[in-house]
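Format notes (please read before filing issues)

Several people have asked whether sequences and structure tokens are stored in separate files. They are not. Every record keeps both together, in the order shown below: the sequence lines, then the token lines. Line labels are part of the format and must not be stripped during preprocessing.
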Amino acid sequence: MTTKRFFVGFLLVSLVLAGIVSYYASSSPDGLEKVASDKGISAKEKDHSLKDSPLGDYGVKGVDDSRLSGGLAGVIGVGAVLLVGGGLFWAVRRRGPSGKAP
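Then the structure lines:
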């Protein structure tokens, strides 16, 4: 298997997981949220400052269908990670092993 085929396959699996499978994730709180609720720590909970951002609360603002909204947020997240990570790898690769740009 070539590196290019591996990355294309990895990207497709990531998009399917983020865009489709994520909808079926448990809506129950995770372990940390449960302990915080049980111990009364969550009583001091405040809304996050980016709650009203376009991708706040694991969805896309303005998209009324929760399944589509969550899926789009996942796909946008995969794209953002790909762009940032790819940009960092490209910048490091461009420097070369000596630390100087070619």
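For reference, the curators noted about this record: The two ends are 30 Å apart (CA to CA). The mean pLDDT is 85.
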